[in-house]
Amino acid sequence: MKNTCVNCGISIPFYERGFLAIQGETELNIGNLSFSGEKTGIFTYHFNFKEFKELLEMLEELENAISEGEWNAGVSARRQNIRMIPFADLKKRMDKRDEVEFIQNGKLVSYFQPIIELKNEELFGYESLLRSGDQEKEISPGSLFQTADETGLHSFLDQRARETAIRCRKDHLQRGIKSFINFLPSTIYNPEFCLQHTFSYVEKYDVDPADLVFEVVETEQIKDVAHLKKVFDVYRREGMKVALDDVGAGFSTLEMLSKLKPDYVKIDRSYIQNCDHNKANQSFLKDVTRISRELGINVLAEGIERKEELQYCKSLGVELGQGYYIGKPLSEPKVPVMV
């Protein structure tokens, strides 16, 4: 399924030579520019560039010339049917060409960090973590998502990340092992439409929906609870599970648990650190495990780095655990052996 929803981020090719089109809300005096152009419609202008460097120079000058109103822009090898996006997004994409080209077409893979059942310390599943699959381009996931956010490609990259996680799961994991896959609720404007891409990947790679858990990523703040509930409902309707990540840090109150009723709740690592002797952390963990148990939600402690932390969480009845003590993210899934 091709990416046809404007809200999912439009992929823009790069051209060494071609045409730049801009369209705004006011008149542009092209006679004041250092390069020539042509007015081709109401507040619409075309410019010809013969090398990519020239395009960058045009955009730099135009940025100062069109400071008022909203402007869209696009580039193409031909003057007809140029696909337009906000001018600021186009300029940033051209300025960060290498990173943007990688986001649009680069090789992506998933690393696997194990998740275990604490009661028996047996494998439960893996969190899928996005990584560059190009050994010559070691770009960090944080850098990729930052560039995507700055260039209007956040939804596009989030969609690619979900496909990558599902594809890599097909290649490496057997049925019955859960995959925890991050998603950005802010990129899913209409869950009935936007999630069709994800569901098509599940069908394409013949993955059992029951093995997939989609979790709100750690950097997201819940701003629209009703919208997120709709997203959760659509995932669940398709036979998948949902999780809240970073509870205690990214969310203002535990009341979110009762409002959203996720299948899993992942406790922020700051509350797991030194939980075997930190009284404040212990108090929070007791509250969240009690509330989750009452609501039928499974609790996952992430960021476990010491045996004592694992044992304390286990003593509280926390169902699942994840962290470097259990296993680091690896390109090939490894079954942890606890000592």
TrEMBL record:
Q: Name one Pfam family in it.
A: EAL
Q: Which SMART domains match?
A: EAL
Recorded hits in InterPro entries, A to Z, give: Cyclic-di-GMP_PDE-like (IPR050706), EAL_dom (IPR001633), EAL_sf (IPR035919)
Taxonomically, the superkingdom here is: Bacteria
Q: Which residues form a coiled coil?
A: none
Per its record, what are the GO molecular function terms?
cyclic-guanylate-specific phosphodiesterase activity
Q: Tell me where in this chain the EAL domain is found.
A: 92-339
Name of the protein described by the UniProt record = EAL domain-containing protein
